[in-house]
Amino acid sequence: MCFFSVICICSSSCICKFVIHLIKNNCVLAHRDSVIGTRHIPQCSRASKDGRTCVVRNATERPETFRKQPNRFKMAATLCGRLLPRLAWLPARQSVRHGSKAVTRHRKPVHFLKQKLLAVTEYRPPRPAVPERCIAPPARQTQEESSLARILEREVEAMFQEGKMIAVVQNNATSAEDMLLFKSRLHKHGIAVRFYPNQVMRSFLSESRYRNLSPLFIGQNVLLVSKEPRVKEMLQCLKGAPQMVLLGACVEETLLSRQGVLAYSRLPSLMAVRGQLVGGMALMTSRTAALLQHHPARLSALLQQYQRQAGGGSTEESSKPEHTDLQEV
């Protein structure tokens, strides 16, 4: 638009200069719709072919000058009529409004006193004496248990029946390589690693006597199962895997916490306890036999002592008169 406006200004300035030059030579260019000159000119010596422009001469000018240069005057008149602005034309550049109207009606806000009055006088239906949630029990969505979950529950039940030690361990982002090494260490001591979904474990524990273990199954958990209570070996393997945290265990149908498992590991082995028990029982039997033999042995000892004392007294009486006789003699 700017380039076009510059061209229009330059062309209009050139045309104005040309018109001024013609006026100095006593010639007037007129157009029917233009501002230059009058609309009704009585003396018109020559008209253009399109009938829009005419060349008017002065009384003092000779008519031959118009005949010699008709094309130049015709071109100047045509340019003036087409390029110069007319009275009824619109400007080349206008600002047009697009969008909504300038004048719009907005809803007047309600006065705050009226708002308060409306809020106070608003109808509120009375509440029922008994809440609706107490009248109608909430609907429970029953989900059918999948066949895979049933199979896993059976495996868990068999595991709790056969295994004497079942430990719950939390897995804290253990890599696959570390998990493989951990499994191999436990396998040397006869401890297996099992993975079961928490939903399956909770559904089984909720209906069994081990229901107190259900709070431990949150997050990623691992089960360490063995047919013998190998607590010391398990704790030694857990020391080498800091990502595995012991939460609790069920040892010989007894639920133990972490501290309980540590205390259980400090107990002597079963063979040592059995040896101590056998030694104590043998000691008690030997002591019982000694106690049973104590009274007869003491009785025989007392009788022997009495016999000795009785035999010693008779010999003393027989020896005394001889001694007296000797003294008398």
UniProtKB/TrEMBL annotation:
InterPro entries: Ribosomal_uL10, Ribosomal_uL10-like_sf, Ribosomal_uL10_bac_type. The keyword Transmembrane does not apply. One of its GO terms (cellular component) is mitochondrial large ribosomal subunit. It comes from the Eukaryota. Transmembrane segments: none annotated. Residues 317-329 have a biased composition (Basic and acidic residues). Residues 1-16 form the signal peptide. This is Large ribosomal subunit protein uL10m.
